Amino acid sequence: MNVSRSILHNERGLALITVLLVFVLLLTLGSAGLVYSVIDIKSTTHYDTGNQALSAAESGVLHALSTMNSAGVSNFQNDVVQRWGQLYGTGSKTMPSSSKVSYQVAVAADPTKPADAGSITVTGFAPLQAQRVLTVTVQKGGFVGVPGAIYLAAEDVTSTFSGNAFEVNGNDHGLNGQIVAGGISKPGIATRNDGVTNGVISSLSDLQKDNVQGAGFSLNPLTPSVQTTSGPSVADLERIVANLLALPGVVSTNQGDFNGSSETLGTVAAPKITRLTNPNVRMNGNASGAGILIADGSIEINGTFDFVGWIIVRGATVINSSHHEHDDTVVLGNATIQGSLWTGHLDIKVGGSAVIDYCDACLRLADQTSTTTANIPRPMAVVSWQEVM
Amino acid sequence: MWLMAALRRLRSDSAGFSLPEIMITTAISLAACATFLSFSNFQLAALRNQADQLDMQTAGRSIVDLFAREVRRAGRNPTCAGTFAAIAEATSYRLRIQSDLNGSGTIDGHNEDITYGFNTYSRAITRLADGVTDELVSGIDPTGSRLRYFDAAGSELIPVWALTQAQRNSVRRVRLELTVRSGATRYGRSAPLQTQVSTDVDLRNRFFVAKTGCP
C-alpha cells in the first residue's frame, strides 16, 4: 500500500516527457528549417558557379582571339585551324584567379568559306559540375595596317645605320608622299622584343636618331621611333609568304639584274604581287612598282627604285652600305618605299638617301589586287555570340 | 469485513484530489497546452513562410536566369545577312528580342523571336515564343517590377511609351527588376511575403562583337 501511494504522488516523469516532446518538436522544426536553408544555399551556389563557368568561357573566347590575332590571319583554315594545337596548346586552361575554374577551346573553319570565317567554341567549367558553352562566329576583320614602316620579325637582329640622309617614318603618309594630317602613327621601326629594340636604338648615332620618326619619337630627350610591338615571327612570316604565293595572279621572276630604264613591278592603277626568286637581285636602273614585292633572297638597289605597297625581304636588308653580303638587301640609290618593309633576316643595314615611309593608303592598295583581296594579315573579328543551351 | 474496512479507509484518506486542486491543475494544463500550441503554430507558420519564400526566390532566380540567357544573345547574326532588329520592341513592361539562332539569315527558327511581358492584370510574367505563351510566374508586384534600358555610356534610356527605333538600336544593357509577392498575409506577419530579384544583362552581340566583323 505504501508503494502504491508513493507512485501516485510521484510527478517527476511528467516533466521529462514534456521536455522530450518539446525537444522533438523543436528538433523537427529546426531540421526542416535547416533543410530549406541548405536548399537555398545550394541553389544560390549553383547559380554562382554557373556564372563562374560563363565568365570562364568568355575569358576563353578572348584568349582564343588574342592567340589567333597575335600574328594576324591570312587564311583562317591554314593559319589557325590546322595549327591550333601549336598556337594555343591542348587541354583546358585554368583561370589564374581560381584553380577550380577552367575553360576549353575548339576552333573550326566555316565549311563554305574556310579561309575567311569560322567559329570558336569554348566550354567553361566551374565547381559543382557547372558548365557553360559559348560559340562565337568569327570572320576576317577589316584592314588594320601593319606594325611599322620597317618591321623586324627576327628574335635577334643586328642593325647598322650609315650616313645621315636616310629617313624612316612611321607617321602615316598619303599616296602623294605627304604626311596625312590626323593620320595614324606607327613606329618607324617595329620589333618583336625589347632586346632587338634596344639594339636598334643603340646602333643609331645621335645624328641619326632623328631620322627615325613615328610613334614614340621625341626631340627632347632625343628618342627615335623604335618600339616593341606584337607581330608575326619569322615562321609566321614564312607562312604569310606561303599564303601570298598561293594567291592567284602572282608574278614570279628569276631575273637577277634589273638594268632597264623603266622596269615596272606593278602600278598604282594595277598593283600586283611580284615574287623575285633570284637569290641576289640587283636594281641598277630605274625601277618602280606597286602592290606586294616578295624577295626570296637579297635586293641590291643601286639606281632609283620607287615602290608603293608592301615589301617582304626574306634575306637581310642593307641600304647603302659600303659592304654587303650576297644575301643582303642593298639600297644604294634613291629608294623610296611608301608602305612598309618587312624582313625576317638577322641583319639590317640602312643608309644612303633611302626613304621608307609608312603609308596606310599604299598598304590598302597592296591589300587588294585585281585578282585578290585581303592580302595583308588582319585580325579575326567576332560577328556573333551565342550561349549554347 | 476487511472490504468494508478498506472502503472506510479510502473515504477518510486525505490524499485524493479536491475540486480546487483539479480546477487549478486543469487551468495550468490548459495554459501550458495553449502556450505549447501557440509556439508550435508559430513555428509551423514560420516554416511555411520559409518554404514559400524559398519557392518565390527560386522562381525569381529561374526567371532571371532564363531571361538573362535569352536576352544576352539577342541580335545574333552569324551570316551578317540578317536585317532583323535585336530589340524589336521595348517598353517598361514588354521586351521583344530576335536572334538568328540557326544561321539561316532570317528569323524563322525555334526561339528566335521571344517576347517577355508583364501582365499587370493577372500579375504574371509571360514568355511568348513560337506562338506559345507561357506564364512563368504569378504574383508579381507591378509597382516593383519593370524593365530598364541603358546605352553604351551607361545612361538610362527612358521610354515615353516605348523606346524609339534609334533608342532600341543603342541599347547595350537591359535590367530586369522583379518583385514577387505571396497572395495573402500569413500568420505572424502584417504583410505578404515578398522577394525582389534583379539582373543586368549586357547584349553580347552588341558589345562583344567587333564592328569591323561584318562587311
Classification by helices and strands of chain A:
alpha/beta
Sheet with the most strands: spatial strand order of chain B: 1-2-3-4-5
Instruction: Please give the alpha-carbon distance between the first and last residues of chain B.
Output: 122 Å
| Strand-residue proportion of chain A | 25-35%
Measure the end-to-end span of chain A: 81 Å
Strand content of chain B: 25-35%
Q: What is the averaged pLDDT score of chain B?
A: 86
Unreliable stretches of chain B, pLDDT < 50, 5 or more residues?
A: none
Main sheet makeup of chain B: 5 strands, antiparallel
Q: Ranges of chain A with pLDDT <50 over ≥5 residues? A: none
- Cα Rg of chain B: 32 Å
Estimate nothing, just give the exact number of structural domains of chain A: 2
Oligomer: heterodimer
Mean pLDDT of chain A: 86
Order of helices and strands of chain B: HHEEEEEEEHEEH
Helix content of chain B: 25-40%
The biggest sheet of chain A, with number of strands, parallel, antiparallel or mixed sense and barrel status, is: 12 strands, parallel
Structure write-up:
The complex is a heterodimer of chains A (389) and B (215). Chain A has helices spanning 2-9, 12-69, 76-81, 84-88, 194-203, 206-209, 234-245, 360-367, and strands spanning 93-95, 98-109, 117-126, 130-140, 150-152, 158-161, 167-169, 189-191, 212-213, 218-219, 222-223, 226-228, 251-253, 257-258, 263-265, 272-276, 280-283, 286-295, 298-301, 304-313, 317-318, 330-331, 334-343, 347-350, 355-358, 380-388. Chain A is an alpha/beta fold. In chain A, strands 5, 7, 8, 9, 12, 13, 15, 16, 18, 20, 23 and 25 form a twelve-stranded parallel sheet that branches. In chain A, a hairpin with a 2-residue loop joins strand 10 (218-219) and strand 11 (222-223). Chain B has one domain. Chain B is rod-shaped and about 120 Å long. The A-B interface holds A 5, 8-9, 18, 22, 25-26, 29, 32-33, 36-37, 39-40, 43-44, 47, 50, 58, 61, 136-139, 141-142, 379, 381-387, 389 and B 15, 32, 36, 40, 43-44, 46-47, 50-51, 54, 57-58, 61, 65, 69, 72-73, 76-78, 80, 99-101, 204-205, 208-210, 212-214.
